[in-house]
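Good morning C.,

I know you're traveling, so I'll keep this short. The sequence:
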Amino acid sequence: MKLPMRFLNRDEYNRLYKVIERRFPEHLAEFIISVITGMRLSEQYSLTWGQVYLDRRTIDLTKTKNGSARTVHLNTDSVAAFQTLKHKLHKPGDPVFVWQGPHFDTRSWFVPCLQDAEIEGYVWHCNRHTFCSWLAMAGASIKEIQELAGHKTITMSARYSHLSPEHRLSVIDRIASI
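The tokens, ready to paste straight into the viewer:
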């Protein structure tokens, strides 16, 4: 099944954030971390505290979809979200996100929030597209998007290049003084 290439604009993100904060505040950190780190669902929900280094602002992922270990970098928003989840009693082997039952379940709370925020055509995996799209719009290169998202090939990251027209213009401007 091919997932939609849908991402949130800032207004949609803010609306969804507010709905989650109001309806399911216990899941707000999960949402923020998903969007701001671009981790895949399986990466995020198999995460243990021993992989999270808030002092270094990094996460060490050892089990990824493409089989290659990678480092996820954290900004101040994602560090703050992790800090809301961290307790002194956590051991390195403890899961960061605790779920009920044998599988991760974001649908039970995420889908109602999407409906309340009036956001259509969006699923949890689209948080990853939001991460990559926001990187592109912030001027990240395709190579930077590849590394930060953990894409095995640069072709996967190239899907976001159309979102950065200003960046392409600035590259063209660089040859003006040559």
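Safe travels,
E.
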